[in-house]
Amino acid sequence: MMGTAQSRPASGEPEKLSEHYIEADVSLVERTLRSLKHGDAFAVMDGYGDVGSAPGTPEGLFFRDTRYLSRFELRFEGKRPLLLSSVIQNDNAALSVDLTNPDIRCQESDGIPRDLVSIERTKFLWKDACYERIGLRNFAEHTVSFRIDLLFDADFRDLFEVRGLDRMRRGEVAAKVLQPDQVEHTYVGLDGARRRTVISFEPAPEQLQPQRATLRVTMPPHGQSSVIVRIAFEEGAPNHVCDFVTAFRDKRRENRKFTRGLATVEGSNDLFNELMCRSTSDLYMLCTETSAGLYPYAGIPWYSTVFGRDGIITAMQTLWADPAIARGVLGYLAATQATSYDPTMDAQPGKIMHERRQGEMARTGEVPFRRYYGTVDATPLFIMLAGLYEERTGDMDFIRSIWPAIKAALAWCDGEGDRDKDGFVEYFRETEHGLANQGWKDSHDSIFHADGSPAQGPIALCEVQGYVYAAKLHAARLAESLGETGWATALRSSAEALRQCFEATFWLEDKGTYALALDAGKRPCAVKTSNAGHALFTGIAAPDRALRTAQTLLSQDGFSGWGVRTLARGEPRFNPMSYHNGSIWPHDNSLIALGFSQYGLKEEAAAVFSAIFDASLHQEQRRLPELYCGFLRRRRRGPVGYPVACSPQAWAAASPFALLEACLGLRILARERMVVLQNPVLPAFLDEVILRDIQVSGEVLDLCIRRAPSGVSVTAPRRTGDIRLTVTS
To answer: Where is the Mannosylglycerate hydrolase MGH1-like glycoside hydrolase domain (predicted)?
Structure first.
């Protein structure tokens, strides 16, 4: 993910910004935006349901990384209607907007005073098209006549253009009226692809022009009328849209199908329940059905596509609740794993993909992300997820199907991932147009030394060594199950050697934490960052050092009150408004909490959960954003928003599931048909939580965890089959 503020290295000179930096003329938190998504299409609208009413925003209807509609505005007698309410429905199926007419010629005989005509807009996406119903109702005691104008345009900008990249050349745009009820906008790009936006109206407008539709409406007292608009996105083959009612019905059916295997959560706190409902809806809205199964696209508006790291971590966070997401992610990434060397894509055999883009600029090579492998952590994380998935499901048949990909990923870790053979996995970009930093903190200024100077690659990140350690232990267990016992022993030995080398090299005794990274000269980046928390998440940290790391992370410099900062206050480059150098990311905090839990630090995990929960109370619709600023928590004030944060974001939406797992110490062992709660605690805002429909090896378990005088009590109100429940302290 990219989007950072400019910083200064030790020399005092401003660093050159990444060419993939997200320019911000308008803050995304400046006004209410509404987002919808289905498949490869997503929409960003204002509260009115309009698109393009304000310049410089990412509003639009996008399909495969191209903006197919850059303007769509509704006018009542030439004026903008008055907004009454605007809400995304609870399941994210549709946007519902209630409007009314403004005052129109009130001093004239044919005038219409405000609040006489109700305007209800319902918008949703389904199968590469946007559907809208504009419902009109006359509450006057007399007949009213008025004009509705719909203003529209399609600029076919690539998403990277919308983000701020300039282009020397573009393709050809055209627009024409096809039929009395249909308009076509086309774009022939530099990649040779022909893209079309086809807008259809029902009933046919009185006047139809390439950028405007005008409808005359006359309604008797208490009369009703409606207008249906269908906007189809086409690239190549025509898109045959269906009627509004059928599409809306099928959309809701798909929503129910996606969540069929999900365990649900209900707590004693209604605000917590709102958070879980919103997170669930956001998570499954971001999921796209691929040939391998569900894949959670990273976030709207900048990252609505496949990201390897994001998909894997989202799957880990939700694994206990719905392992189908993990299966879809593993299957897709195994199928797209690199099989050859290609420096233009930072690809090497065995490497797991970082990012896939389908827009014009990716296809022409103006950006390298058509299929880009410039990530150092997705490959070991892929192996980790495979092991965790098998532990959760016992699905060895699926593991056998991706076993060659797992072995290739392990070979990359020991081969191209460790070119200098020092035992650590490092990154160094092969293309100057790729990402300079290739961990999850991939902004240009995020990896540096204690004097603020940037680290020079190849770079070995703290958390990546933990991922490799855990990956080898998981792979060893899988290898043993597949009869490869000799290799399993070798993997465990390699993991232990890495652990010892990691402790000897990365630990910073004077700072009570692990170094952010090692540079090309093996010098530690001796700064206090949240990356060290991932060492706990993976289990590579020694127990005594894990405790000290937790204390450092939760110190006043590391913990703002709204969560653990990416970079501790007082460190060079600390900036609470930056992308990676002092901000707070919910997903980062959830992995840190899981790490705390692994070392028995349950109260610390609960403190992190409480901070993230409190932050959610200040977010519209309880939607956790990608990140927010790391300013110190103050009384009677909420967290400070980040100007270009994605919202919704998959791993932010999945964070409450992982935070709850951390507090409960929840572990599901499918082979043993066992559910384990290791020293469960409840965060301060919950007295009770009920988990329903936890599926284990074809059986179902419900759990009730309730606060008690001596801790918590655990009961199983429903249990089918022979599932065992174990609670340890």
So the answer is: 313-616
